[in-house]
DNA sequence: CTTTTTCTATGGTGATCACCATAATATGGC
DNA sequence: GCCATATTATGGTGATCACCATAGAAAAAG
């Protein structure tokens, strides 16, 4: 008994988009249903646990995509920490420019509305950050960083990217990403020069 | 004709607290009125423009407090960039621990709900970030940094603090602040050692 | 005390919220 | 065509949302 419609997938994609732009609480189910073009009558058939379940599936998709991006960057800069960092900043900056600074990070948006989230959803957000950080740390270890330093640097990098997103949305310019790249470059230049 | 009640001030303080914990959209006026103990009948007397005005006054107060904190730290670490940075991370980490990781940054929470904000409120959020960054940049210039490098470093620091807040709330530990401090220390040690 | 201003109580507006019960309709396998 | 499952329409639930009109109470000024 295979699926016959794409209403479910479209609802998830629309939810991901709107949650990133507006946030979780500020986005009503009616808007998601309307903009996704999905039928209004079948929402609770596809998502019996309602809005929370929809958010879970949206963040699962978001995290998977983000991890894939990080893995790609890591693979293309093997052994080169500075290029890795620069490419991360560059990629996220480009994404923001492409969306005219409308899109935030879904994990961050959800994390800033923690009291509205149930335990399961909270767990997935935390896991998204942990998994992202681990991939970055793994790359740094591959550059010869000691494990502790690789972890610290990875955490710092992930935090910086999140903060940069917030500020870039507000200022509507990728300047903050360039500032972070500059500071990183200084750091490595200082170590080696 | 002096003020006779503190209902207004209490509403602002409660709004600031709840907006920091729950976000702007997720916090209803009814909750603010109830928790502040303010009379229900006089809200639109004190805040004729409603929720938006309340948020404006809340962020004005928040930004003023934050700027005062930054100035204090700057004054106590004159000419010492590393101590300045460490004390910033330490202070914000301590604030988060003290509130059991409940409080986010009001500027960041509002910035993540931009579509729900009117132009005036958006402007004040942006100004809060700009003013904070300028104070940090000023300190770095006082440490002998060239103006461009002082600005980049200040922007990067502010972004890192914002991202760290998000992650710290989620993980319920100040570890991310320590990671940032470690990375900063490495950076300066590399330059000087 | 009277007047003026400041503040609050009451009770509502329509809109939207997430959610759901019921029944009808598609669509597949047979 | 028949049956079982998958999907959708309809029409609602009570709750909460931000907001407001009106009137009354409290307090300062004269």
Question: Can you walk through the features of this model?
Answer:
The structure is a homodimer of 193-residue chains. The termini of chain A are far apart. In chain A, helix 1 crosses helix 2 and helix 5 packs parallel to helix 8 (147-171). Chain A has helices spanning 7-22, 29-36, 43-46, 51-76, 81-98, 106-111, 119-142, 147-171, 175-192. Chain A has one domain (51-192): Tetracycline Repressor, domain 2 (Orthogonal Bundle), CATH 1.10.357. By secondary structure, the first copy, chain A, is mainly α. Chain A binds a DNA duplex (30 and 30 nucleotides) through residues 1-5, 7, 28-30, 39-46, 50-51.
- Give the biggest beta sheet of chain A: none
Q: Under the CATH scheme, which class of chain A?
A: Mainly Alpha
- Give the helices and strands of chain A as they follow along the chain: HHHHHHHHH
Return the average pLDDT of chain A rounded to an integer. 94
Q: Class by helix and strand content of chain A?
A: mainly alpha
Q: What is the helix tally of chain A?
A: 9
The largest contact between protein chains, plus residue counts on each side, is: A-B, 47 and 47 residues
Mass-distribution shape of chain A: elongated
Q: What proportion of the residues of chain A is helical, as a percent range?
A: over 70%
- Cα(first) to Cα(last) distance of chain A is 64 Å
Beta content of chain A comes to under 5%
The CATH superfamily of chain A bears the name Tetracycline Repressor, domain 2
**CATH fold-level name of chain A:** Tetracycline Repressor, domain 2
C-alpha-based Rg of chain A, rounded: 19 Å
Low-confidence stretches of chain A: none
Question: How many separate structural domains of chain A?
Answer: 1
């Amino acid at each position: 008994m295979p699926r016959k419609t794409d209403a479910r997938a479209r609802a998830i994609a629309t939810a991901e988009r709107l949650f990133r732009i507006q946030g979780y609480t500020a986005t009503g189910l009616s808007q998601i249903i309307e903009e996704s073009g999905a039928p209004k009558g079948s929402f609770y058939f596809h998502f019996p646990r309602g809005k929370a379940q929809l958010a879970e599936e949206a963040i699962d998709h978001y995290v998977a995509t983000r991890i894939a991006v990080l893995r790609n960057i890591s693979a293309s800069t093997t052994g080169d920490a500075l290029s890795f960092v620069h490419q991360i900043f560059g990629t996220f900056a480009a994404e923001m420019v492409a969306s005219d600074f409308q899109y935030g990070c879904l994990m961050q948006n959800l994390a800033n509305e923690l009291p509205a989230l149930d335990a399961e959803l909270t767990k997935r957000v935390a896991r998204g950050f942990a998994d992202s950080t681990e991939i970055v740390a793994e790359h740094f270890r591959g550059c010869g960083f000691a494990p502790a330093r690789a972890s610290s640097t990875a955490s710092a990098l992930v935090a910086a990217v999140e903060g940069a997103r917030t500020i870039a949305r507000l200022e509507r310019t990728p300047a903050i990403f360039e500032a972070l790249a500059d500071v990183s470059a200084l750091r490595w230049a200082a170590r080696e020069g």
